[in-house]
């Protein structure tokens, strides 16, 4: 059976909507509350591995940010998409399930200003030492001089 | 002794000896202030026996305190700015800077990025610019040789 079909069967309970952007890819819309359960389901079945956590800013008008958790199994890529409001940008940490997610979460926090609650080390990862607090370079409304 | 040093002929001869020594042993240090590594690979290729830069006396030094020439690659990132200045200040006078690659000259593809200060001569004075993305080892050698020629010209003027 196809790896993505397996993932779809595992996650039906937690996913609100499915989309297939291209061959071998599957996007799953997940609420922040269901994120940990969805990741746990993948982890319990040892489905693939987490390759990256990325952020997406659709712009100020949209009023939302997206956090994307990419899992790979062979050629298949499953992306869990979590949409959060700009004003209260926060997602739970998945480090209890996948410890190495910490580095991705630190990058997400410093680049997009998304609070990742429960992450073991919330310090900065890539930004320069003298980078000002509260300036998030990958947000669309950040003015750079 | 003091009277000899004051003698103009003596100090002129000393200057010529210094220039001769400087031109025949340009020791270099290589610093990457935010490059993509393309130029660094070309610099390493330049130092291989195939190009044999030791025929010009060019040698890569491990410490900036022993170097005459700072070979810089890449744009200057916000994090690397202080390190670049520190290395430049550690070098003994007279010191020379060669900016290698498009990014070192203009910021290149990284210009305007949130963590980039700019090109190298916004931070330290540059003597020779070697364009290219990345420049070939021949171009880098040519840059060093041009710098040696520039030293001669400055000494004569």
Distance between the termini of chain A: 52 Å
- What is the CATH-assigned architecture of chain B? 3-Layer(aba) Sandwich
CATH class of chain B: Alpha Beta
How far from one another are the termini of chain B? 28 Å
CATH architecture of the domain at 3-86 in chain A: 2-Layer Sandwich
Number of separate helices of chain A: 3
Shape of chain A: globular
What is the CATH topology assignment of chain B?
A: Rossmann fold
Determine the mean pLDDT of chain A.
89
Count of individual helical segments of chain B: 6
Low-confidence stretches of chain B: none
- Let me know the average pLDDT of chain B: 88
Largest interface: A-B, 8 and 6 residues
Sheet with the most strands: spatial strand order of chain B: 2-1-3-5-7
Task: Describe the structure concisely.
Chain A has helices at residues 3-11, 32-44, 101-112, and strands spanning 15-19, 25-30, 49-57, 64-73, 76-85, 90-92, 115-117.
Can you put this structure into words, describing what you see?
The complex is a heterodimer of chains A (145) and B (157). By secondary structure, chain A is of the alpha/beta class. Chain A has helices at 3-11, 32-44, 101-112, and strands at residues 15-19, 25-30, 49-57, 64-73, 76-85, 90-92, 115-117. Chain B has a single domain (26-151), classed as Rossmann fold (3-Layer(aba) Sandwich). Chain B has helices at 2-6, 8-24, 38-46, 81-90, 102-106, 137-156; strands at residues 27-32, 59-60, 69-73, 76-77, 96-100, 116-118, 128-130. At the A-B interface, loops of A face loops of B.
List the helices and strands and how they pair.
The complex is a heterodimer of chains A (145) and B (157).
Chain A: H1 3-11, E1 15-19, E2 25-30, H2 32-44, E3 49-57, E4 64-73, E5 76-85, E6 90-92, H3 101-112, E7 115-117
Parallel strand pairs in A: 2-5, 6-7
Antiparallel strand pairs in A: 1-2, 3-4, 4-5
Chain B: H1 2-6, H2 8-24, E1 27-32, H3 38-46, E2 59-60, E3 69-73, E4 76-77, H4 81-90, E5 96-100, H5 102-106, E6 116-118, E7 128-130, H6 137-156
Parallel strand pairs in B: 1-2, 1-3, 3-5, 5-7
Antiparallel strand pairs in B: 4-6
Helix pairs in contact in B: 2-6, 3-6
